[in-house]
Request: fold
Amino acid sequence: MDLYLDKVRLFEIAISSRNGSIDFHPSNGDGSAKEWDRSGSIRRPKNHLFEHDWVRFDHPVSVETRRLDDCCSEANLSKIDFIWMDVQRAESDVIAGATQTPPWMATRARACRTGSLCR
Reply:
């Protein structure tokens, strides 16, 4: 596994439809769940608050956003082998920022977004 770590790059940004900044809403919990901090989104929570009323999103954090096209260009990425996208219903933002990224990437992302497992 360590053989491929030189091919992995980490970018501490949120991929979105535009460059700039946006509020990220990380989770936090009440009572015995006060350590619940394992989810969040640039989308404000909606049904989550009713289905899991013990989870809160009280402290938004401003994060830098970059379009996928611009991120790839700035990092001189000519090929993307794999993207793990767990963006909590913000898939359309990622895709909207990928107009110049290899066409197969946007096509597969759209197919995933419309699949039965995605909301």
